[in-house]
Design a protein that fits this description.
heterodimer, A: 68% helix, flat, B: 216 residues, mainly alpha, 0% strand
Chain lengths: 189, 216
């Protein structure tokens, strides 16, 4: 049997492994060493405490939250009809998304392989691409100008934290190679 | 610590026949006094609070404030920011309450909000600060002040190493190591798969090991 996988090692941190992994762990010095060092690290991490705030803090905290909610309610639109808040931004975002999609689908696409030597002097391929994309982008910019970032986020139209990382982690090996190629092409452009 | 499934919609019968399921908005009789509210489970409190009852939400805050604060503290490293972020998390929870459908436990949902609020704050504010009380004051009356100092320095190094981890690894480590959440619960909170959570947890520990060395 090959060495224990990271997943096996994490499982072993929590409960005894089942055979054949358990048998391997008993026999393999390297895996035992790896497990022991993970255990040590986790133990050390767990020793770092959060200092407890004063009991008065906990007593006061719900009132503090309550005041913050009151202030938030006083500032923001009515909570009674949340859909009203959404009507304008949602329509604007939808329009912006449609315009962007149309721009991407119908407009000329700059090619990664655009040969620069075919471009007449004084005009670069990049300049052309920017000029072509400029009109829809200006429209998108104008439409999105009044949008509140929080509203856009709540509408699920923003890239969340680690979305890119997650997407990259889900790529296949071939897709990784292609992504690398595209990134290198972009860096050297 | 959160045990999954304890905060679902089916609730402990405080008053048989009245609170056995999620309360339909505007139809059920709602408990008036704080003691009755405190006896309700999260699902019932959410249903009542979503109708605009702030006293029900206060009970939710009281019940979950320590966990939410602790998550925020793990990301910020100081009391002031942690208390501000915990407050912000609950304000967002109040705003989002009508959209909370109870597919996950309330605690899981609150963790998700706190993690997002904290990660956003950390990415805007940069490396967290550490309070004096945490890192520099050494109790000279303690048994061995030198050992205490070494221990605190090591703890500060661990904290710095944790803060230097990539966001997802840090969030996974915090939720797993300090809040004892299962890989599945963390996956729900971070919106990823159990496999990705395990990989992040493993890499977080491996990176800490690399950064700190094996011996304290």
């Amino acid at each position: 049997m090959s060495h224990l996988s990271p997943s096996d090692l994490l499982d072993a941190l929590e409960a005894p492994l089942l055979d054949p992994a358990a048998r391997h762990l008993t026999a393999c010095v390297q895996c035992r060493g790896e497990l022991a060092s993970l255990e040590r690290m986790l133990r050390e991490v767990r020793q770092v405490d959060v200092p407890a705030p004063s009991p008065l803090f906990w007593e006061h905290f719900p009132r503090r939250v309550s005041a913050a909610i009151e202030a938030d309610r006083a500032q923001g639109p009515s909570r009674a009809a949340p859909w009203r808040r959404w009507r304008v931004p949602a329509a604007a975002v939808a329009t912006a998304a449609m315009v962007t999609a149309a721009g991407l689908l119908l407009g000329p696409r700059p090619s990664w392989d655009t040969p620069t030597h075919d471009v007449p002097p004084g005009r670069s391929a990049e300049t052309d691409a920017v000029m072509i994309d400029d009109t829809p982008w200006t429209l998108v910019e104008a439409l999105a100008d009044d949008l509140d970032l929080d509203d856009v986020g709540r509408a699920g139209l923003m890239i969340g934290a680690d979305t890119v990382e997650l997407a990259a982690a889900q790529l296949t090996a071939a897709e990784h190679v292609e992504l690398l190629r595209l990134l290198e092409a972009e860096i050297h452009r | 610590m959160v045990s999954e499934g304890t905060h679902r919609w089916l609730v402990t019968d405080v008053s048989p026949g009245r609170w056995g399921a999620r309360v339909p908005r505007g139809e059920a009789e709602t408990p008036r006094d704080a003691d009755t509210l405190s006896a309700l489970d999260d699902g019932s409190l959410v249903a009542i609070a979503a109708d605009g009852r702030r006293d029900a939400f206060d009970v939710i805050v009281e019940r979950h404030q320590r966990c939410v604060y602790a998550v925020c503290y793990r990301f910020t490293g100081n009391h002031e920011d942690a208390s501000d972020l915990a407050q912000e998390s609950f304000v967002r929870a109040w705003r989002g309450l009508p959209r909370f459908k109870g597919q996950s436990a309330l605690s899981t949902w609150l963790y998700r909000i706190a993690v997002n609020v904290s990660l956003n704050h950390v990415s805007v504010k940069g490396v967290p600060t550490e309070s004096l009380t945490e890192s520099e004051f050494v109790d000279v009356a303690a048994e061995d002040p030198r050992a205490t100092l070494v221990k605190r320095e090591r703890a500060a190094a661990v904290r710095r190493a944790i803060h230097a981890l990539p966001r997802k690894q840090r969030a996974t480590l915090v939720l797993r190591a300090y809040h004892d959440l299962s890989h599945k619960q963390i996956a729900e909170i971070l919106g990823s798969s159990v496999g990705a959570v395990k990989a992040n947890f493993f890499h977080a520990l491996a990176n800490l090991k690399k950064c700190l060395g094996t011996e304290p």
